[in-house]
Specification:
With 161 residues, the chain is of the alpha+beta class. The protein contains four helices and nine strands; from the N terminus they run αααββαβββββββ. Helix content is 34%, strand content 35%. Strands 1, 2, 3, 4, 5, 6 and 7 form a seven-stranded mixed sheet that branches. The protein has a two-stranded antiparallel ribbon with strand order 8-9.
């Protein structure tokens, strides 16, 4: 009978310990994270390359589909700056998500201006998922996943162009 009491006590103790650890909230956002997110949204909506550049660390690393495409701010601005500020190209950021040290947005861009390339056949929206890692008050890593030109609805079906 003592072993039964011990087994019940152990089971109850373990279940209480498990539910206690499951209720631990995630760590808070970094103090500067909200400001960086707000300034990022403003930089895109106003197509302000200088405001965007001010958010980046000098040694920012940028990845597109896992490939390192820029190893510093100057390289990234040389590649992305003309797209951000191009006439006829507009950007929207979908409501994003944040965890400690990371921002995640869906970026929608209209490529009507095509920034030197032929506009896509379904002219002209493209969609990318972009994660911004933050440290020391700056964006230190940008991870872009190219989403393509067909938007999906909540049920996974093609929602249109």
């Amino acid at each position: 009978m003592a072993w039964l009491r011990f087994a019940v006590f152990t089971a109850v103790s373990l279940s209480l310990a498990t539910s206690a650890t499951a209720q631990v909230p995630p760590p808070p956002l970094l103090p500067e994270q909200t400001s960086i997110a707000e300034n990022l949204v403003r930089a895109f909506s106003t197509k302000d390359e200088a405001r965007y550049a001010a958010l980046l660390a000098d040694d920012v690393q940028v990845f597109e589909d896992g490939q390192n495409v820029a190893r510093n701010k100057a390289d990234w601005l040389k590649a992305f700056g003309p797209k951000l500020s191009a006439t006829g190209v507009s950007f929207k950021l979908a409501p994003g998500y944040a965890s400690t040290g990371r921002l995640l947005f869906m970026e929608y861009f209209n490529s009507l201006g095509s920034w030197g390339r032929k506009p896509p056949p379904d002219c002209c929206w493209g969609y990318d998922a972009v994660a911004y890692d933050i440290a020391g008050g700056k964006i230190t890593v940008i991870r872009r996943l190219r989403g393509g030109t067909s938007r999906l609805a909540d049920d996974g079906k093609t929602a249109g162009k």
